[in-house]
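Sequence only, no structure available. Ideas?
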Amino acid sequence: MPDATTALTSAQTEAFVINGFVRIDDAFPQALADQGRAILWRETGCDPDDPSSWTRPVIRLGGYADQVFRDAANTPRLHAAYDALAGAGNWLPPGGLGTFPIRFPSAEAPGDDGWHVDVSFALPGDDQSDFMAWRANLASRGRALLMLFLFSDVGKDDAPTRIRVGSHQDIARKLACCGEDGATLRDLAWDGFADTSCRPEVLATGEAGTVYLCHPFLVHAAQPHRGTRPKFMAQPPLLPRRGFDLSKPLSEQTPVEKAISQALGS
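Reply:
I predicted one. Tokens follow.
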């Protein structure tokens, strides 16, 4: 287990700015992953030892703030990484891990595997029941990071999240002309994120306890499960304590801010 007081190396931080994500192994103990997985298995209504009970490609569970999930999201190693990427103290300690899409081996299409970015706010006149009407803006209102918490071992056949490396730069340029109100997911996705299709693709694999900390604008997607054991992953936001400020000198910007500024040629 790495030193819990260690944040990220300068190379990891720079890679985050360029690539849009950083992988942290042993971000939380596997014992917590085991405990969390036991809770989630009960919630699915499925038998972990009887694949015939795994009748759907995805079961989406939401609203998990049990102590085990709070502990997993708030290890010293992760707190140091949050500080390193979003700015010291410029984030709210996660009160849980929110939604878990549990993915089961299945020949059936999951129906939720399109490329997208995670949006974070709606305007008063927007239909808040319509997820496609939610928004992102250049200052990443409402989201400091996108996070992927692996609660099971995830190999290349286990429906690992697909990531388009560097795609956060393309989204920053799209949002640059959208003002404070930003753009809806419907606006951003009108062409299926075709302008990011040339980006290299990597898979968010790793052992239970691995966490991927991603830029809020990173384009990513789920995929069908072709393995043998279900995948347990949480994908919560890291909420900001205050907004990002792109007007600061580049030398004073956080890596999240710097990635946006550099994408715009600042």
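Residues 10-263 form a domain with the Jelly Rolls fold (CATH 2.60.120.330).
Hope that gets you unstuck.
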